[in-house]
Fold:
Amino acid sequence: MVNKSRKKYYAPSKKARQWYLIQRIALWVLAFFLLYTGFTTFVASMRVMESDSMQPGLRAGDRFVFSSYMLYSLLPDSTWMNHSIPMRRGSIVLVNRAIPQGRGLLTNLLDEGIRFFTAQRIGLGGQTDQYYMKRIVGLPGDEIFMTNFVMRVKPRDSSYSLTEFELSDQPYDVTIPQVPALWDESIPFSGNMDKIVLGADECFVLSDERSNTNDSRTWGPVSLDFVVGKALFRYWPITRLGPP
Structure:
């Protein structure tokens, strides 16, 4: 009788402890998710280079820490056209071409939540992120054109143009391909491009490997809303640890 009474007494207590444990686990998962989403949205994220489109400086398998531009976009009275623009010519940036135009902060956070709980397999509207690491060569208002795979840039406040290398904040090399005989200047990868002027919310991004790799030569100028971060440093492989 005593054993039966004890079992009856401890049964609700055991269920309560189990329910309490489930609640604690759920709270820890939620807290981790909020910290993860907040950190990757507003501070920094880690990305891996998945192709050789940025040779010779960056290689497939290299891993980077990217800062986020989200906090800057939330500052009061901030515009991409003022002198405090965080982007610089020559910087390696992260472009997400899957971001729908006009998507707000709450929608972005909801999308991050769905991706977090589905291991990045599902997003809002069934879209898959399309992240690309590219180099910025043109900023809003720049007049740009390409000759033999090298971009020439006339900044909006300048009266003459310089090569992309002369205007870059950091040195870098590009891979110039051998152009097939049948390619002409109408093909995006021919190495030549007519003059265009970038709009108030546009930038121009290129691959360092200038053959048939996707970049602004095929996409056209990229909206600044699609540029989600800047490479801070490479943390893998250890032998190439440092700025990108």
User: Anything to note?
Assistant: The two ends are 74 Å apart (CA to CA).
